[in-house]
Amino acid sequence: MRHFEFTETEARRNFFEKRVNPLAYIVLGASLVLSFLALSSDPKRFWGIFHTNLLFFLGIAQGGALFYALVKATKGYWSIPILRVIPYSILLLPIITILFFVEWIFGGKYIFPYFDPEQIHHHRFGWLS
Question: Residue 110 burial by CB count (10 A; 0-12/13-18/19+): exposed, middle or buried?
Answer without folding.
Answer: buried
